[in-house]
Design goal:
about 30% strand; 5-stranded antiparallel sheet; 3 helices; about 150 residues; alpha+beta; about 20% helix
Length: about 150
Amino acid sequence: MSSNNSSVGLTTGLISAFNRIGQEAKGDTGAEILKNAGMDFSVVKTPLYDSTGTPLSGCGYSRLSRDDTGQTLGVVSNKYKVFQNQEMMALFEEVCHQTGAKIDRIGMVNNGEKVFMSFRQPEGFSFGAGEEIDAYWYMMSSHDASSGLKLF
């Protein structure tokens, strides 16, 4: 990123936020990067239960939780398809393989309700007078159904 922080707008705010809440991606493979970031869990969809422990059959909703801790991440429609962290990483790895980009940062919010990754393109942009701007891609997804998969 350019050292010139005079830009304003959504992109500048997102980059700043990613740098504050994420961490450097560490590892040689996608699986290693996920493990080192504490994001090597899967999200499971299970029935909802009433206060007596009886499954709420026919309610149209399910609970999403982490398979490693059991923490509830959200309640979703039964039609909701979980996009796993491993699937997100596989997509990221393919983009990096095709473009020469490198996985840069990775992170999650609220223990996995929202997850994100960024990668840096091998070449940025130049705008006259030596102004250099690095190019990044960001991918976000949620496990609480607040948003779908986004790439920008």
